[in-house]
Design brief:
55% of the residues lie in helices and 0% in strands. The chain is an all-alpha fold and 172 residues long. Helix 1 packs antiparallel against helix 2 and helix 5 crosses helix 6.
Length: 172
């Protein structure tokens, strides 16, 4: 038995052990402990089927990749097969156009995540106007963005500088 298959066998044994212990916990009425063991088992399974970036992986020859994908299509949909990270990586190694699309998608996902983090960490204590296009008479081009309106002569208090962010952008 090779060292690789021995390591894989150990990993499968660990999954089996976690599931068996979860079963015992469930029988004893310890549902929370059983669920935690199942979550650990899922993580162990994922580490088997989705190796981390630190693990060396030899490029899969095209013929073997095609055989693997064709075999997987007997029980899986193409969308499910394409969602497996190592399959996408292996296909990208054989098709530069797909690799480039993957790189663009990764960059877009990173930018999307950064935008979400920026929105979540935004200072929401401000009283700046965000949605001012509900009334056509007061609508402006910055609606949908956090901004302020300068005071309107003859209508004091309708709009004015933000007391928290006096330098905020506004319709000027």
């Amino acid at each position: 038995m090779s060292a690789v298959s021995s390591k894989l066998t150990e990993r499968f044994d660990r999954v089996r052990e976690l599931v068996d212990v979860a079963h015992i916990y469930a029988e004893d009425g310890a549902a929370l402990s059983a669920m935690q063991n199942l979550v650990d088992a899922i993580a162990a399974i994922r580490s088997i089927i989705e190796p981390g970036p630190d693990q060396d992986r030899r490029p899969v020859p095209l013929e073997r990749l095609v055989e693997t994908v064709e075999g997987a299509q007997r029980t899986r949909k193409p969308e499910e097969i394409a969602a497996v990270p190592w399959v996408a990586e292996a296909i990208g190694l054989h098709d530069p156009a797909i690799r480039a699309l993957g790189d663009v998608a990764t960059l877009a996902q990173q930018r999307y995540h950064a935008a979400l983090v920026e929105w979540i960490t935004r200072d929401w204590t401000c009283l700046c106007v965000v949605s001012c296009d509900e009334d056509p008479a007061t609508a402006c081009g910055l609606s949908g963005q956090q901004h302020v309106h300068p005071a309107i002569p003859g209508r004091p208090g309708v709009y004015g500088p933000c007391p928290v962010h006096p330098d905020a952008p506004g319709d000027r």
